[in-house]
Specification:
With 317 residues, this protein is α/β, with parallel strands linked by helices. Helices cover 44% and strands 12% of the residues. It has 12 helices and 8 strands. Strands 1-2-3-4-5-6-7-8 form an 8-stranded parallel beta barrel, surrounded by 4 helices. The longest helix is centred in the last third of the chain and has 17 residues, at 245-261. The termini are far apart. The mean pLDDT is 94.
Length: 317
């Protein structure tokens, strides 16, 4: 394993931002995806987070498209050893299959490894919970995969805090590997659930945090300020809930501080999370070079205590 990037509970990230692979094979075709993946490495971004079911929601897709593009890029570029790779299991595939039963996870990990053209996954995550499957079955198969070297660590995405706690307790009782990370919804607008429910178990369990929708589906970039701005957007249903007094107050604060730092609002919104000690890495996607540079600048941006206070106050709930 000497060729693999150092990766563990205390150093989940080498880069400070993870790239959301949901755009690969969706809003970016194969050629554009390869260009973006090369650009990530060129800019010292080495963490990619995807899922086995990306992008099943696209007409004609079945899931696995994102993993397949990453795998083809690995093969053609020879850059597998430069990437920390996270993927997920449990979310619905195009054929309707989903869940966290042992046989299904075993089948799914083999399929993911084949698509990804690699023999190991750095972080394998439960995408969604499966209330019909005993957690001991799920944690047991994960432990087997780790023992076999096919998976290095496991994490939880979209599981309720109590379910993460009970799963890890089962793992401890059986001397199995436990979840080392959580992947919650978190951004300047969506703060309450993470801060009130997830943060206590994160601190108690020393868990890494990989927050998704760091830009609130693009809302925090300042692109959408009125209902008219949403017309024709693929993100209309995802963003419309942010268009209210609080949401606009957050945008006003972002715009003011971003102007002072001479950066984009997207850069500032991402930097707000990077500068929070409880967030290990926000997950952010990019579909062009401008958006990628916004991410790079966010890693470099140092916020003052006044900046943080202003953003926290504007986004109070």
């Amino acid at each position: 394993m000497s060729d693999k990037i150092k990766f563990g509970k205390s150093d989940l990230m080498v880069a400070r931002v993870s790239f959301g692979g949901n755009v690969l094979g969706w809003t970016l075709d194969e050629k554009e995806s390869f260009r973006m993946l090369d650009a990530l490495v060129d800019n010292d971004l080495n963490f990619i987070d995807t899922a086995n079911n990306y992008s099943y929601w696209v007409p004609g897709h079945q899931g696995g498209e994102s993993e397949a593009i990453i795998g083809k890029w690995f093969k053609e570029s020879g850059k597998r050893n430069k990437i920390i790779l996270a993927t997920k299991v449990g979310g619905q595939m195009g054929d309707g299959s989903k869940g966290l039963k042992a046989d299904y996870i075993r089948h799914s990990v083999e399929a993911s490894l084949k698509r990804l053209q690699t023999d190991y996954i750095d972080l394998y995550q439960s995408h969604y919970d499966d209330m019909e499957t005993d957690q001991s079955e799920t944690m047991g198969i994960y432990n087997q995969l780790i023992q076999e070297g096919k998976v290095r660590f496991i994490g939880a995405s979209n599981l309720e805090p109590q379910r993460i706690t009970t799963a890890n307790e089962i793992a401890r009782q059986n001397h199995w590997a436990s979840y080392i990370s959580v992947q919650p919804l978190y951004n300047l607008y969506d703060r309450a659930k993470f801060e009130n429910e997830y943060l206590p178990i994160v601190q108690e369990g020393d868990l890494a945090v990989m927050s998704y929708f760091a830009l609130a589906s693009g809302f925090l970039s300042g692109k959408y300020r009125t209902a008219a701005d949403l017309e024709g957007s693929k993100r209309k249903d995802m963003v419309k809930g942010y268009l209210n007094e609080r949401g606009l107050r957050i945008l006003d604060a972002l715009e003011k501080i971003a102007r002072e730092h001479q950066v984009s609002m997207a850069t500032l919104a991402t930097a707000w999370q990077i500068n929070k000690p409880e967030i290990t890495t926000p997950i952010v996607s990019a579909t062009n070079s401008t958006q990628l540079q916004d991410i790079v600048k966010a890693m470099e941006l140092k916020l003052t205590s006044e900046d943080k206070d202003a953003l926290n106050h504007a986004s109070r709930y």
